[in-house]
Design a protein that fits this description.
mainly alpha, Arc Repressor Mutant, subunit A, three-stranded antiparallel β-sheet, 3 strands, globular
């Protein structure tokens, strides 16, 4: 059994890395299909997106729904357990945007706003 020094280590093991928090951030606004996530996260490779989604599903953070249609349709959404991460993700977002304001004076110079952005105005 792995030992941890604090809760931050545990949290980062589950949602850390370059992509998982970003995927979860986009899922806070509702269900997304794989192609929607690819459009929202253009720098992620399809292989990496699939791997990260599988890991998040295995950890019970997201729920995957497969619709038996032709062509097949798959949607991802936060599980009830995953929804408990929303405040963590909101805090990450808030802190990052405030940091950009501190460093650049105006986050709009470096932050692209997505249609599903969590904040109207901070």
């Amino acid at each position: 059994m792995k030992k941890y020094r604090n809760g931050v280590e545990v949290t980062l093991e589950v949602i850390g890395g370059k992509w998982k928090s970003i995927i979860l951030y986009h899922l806070t606004t509702g269900k997304k299909r794989t192609n929607e996530l690819k459009k929202l996260i253009p720098d992620i490779t399809p292989k990496m997106l699939t791997q990260q989604l599988r890991e998040l599903e295995k950890d019970g953070i997201i729920h995957r729904t497969v619709y038996h249609e032709i062509p097949p349709r798959v949607e991802y959404e936060l599980s009830e357990y995953g929804l408990t991460l929303k405040t963590v993700l909101d805090s990450f977002c808030f802190w990052g945007e405030k940091h950009l304001d501190k460093v650049y004076g105006d986050r709009s110079a470096v932050l692209e706003e997505w249609p599903d952005h969590a904040y109207e105005q901070i």
